[in-house]
Amino acid sequence: MSTTVKRHPERGAYDRETVDAILDAGFLCHVGFSLEGQPYVIPMLHARVGDVLYLHGSTASRLMQALASRAPVCATVTHLDGIVLAKSVFNHSVNYRSAVVLGSARLVEGDEKVAALEAIVNHIEPGRWDVARRPTDKELRTTQVVALPLDECSAKIRTGPPKESPGDEDLDVPSGVVQLRLVRE
Questions:
Q1: Using the 8-state DSSP alphabet, how is residue 61 labeled?
Q2: pTM exceeds 0.70
Q3: Structural domains of the chain, with CATH
Q4: How far is CA 26 from CA 38, 74, 80, 123, 160, in A?
Q5: What letters, b where the CB count within 10 A reaches 16 and e where it falls short, cover 63-93?
Q6: Tens of pLDDT, residues 13-33
């Protein structure tokens, strides 16, 4: 499986509950694709519904054109949970949760397209679809939605304190984890 964690395999998680929780907690995913040999990574809003990750964008964007043509794609969501400060700069790190989804997306139309847009809007702000103006027919025509199946996905998670090198434990240098969290104001 291409989503098998190679570096620090002990941090890998392959159960859908873990992957889904990371996808659902994130607001922004990064989508990677290649066009004419040039790689691109574009930030996008997303929403997971069941076994599908929905993405949307302009029908004029090269990303959406590539996705609609079923080009291979990689979508990632990462949460930065803490800055890990060790006594040695070599051992500084971060605590994080990340999910990777690989596959080919399919173009979404009709009722599924509208339901996917509703899911994306409500993922960003629960209940927003019910209070904001709905898209016009023209807006729907200029917006493309694709569904990326969660058939090949994994998570990688790092938690915990710094890993100190032998001999560094007695250095008079502060170390530990600076916790980070996303706050809605």
A1: S
A2: yes
A3: 9-160 (2.30.110.10)
A4: 27, 16, 11, 9, 21
A5: bbbbbbeeeebbbbbbbebbebbbbeeeeeb
A6: 899 999 999 999 999 999 999
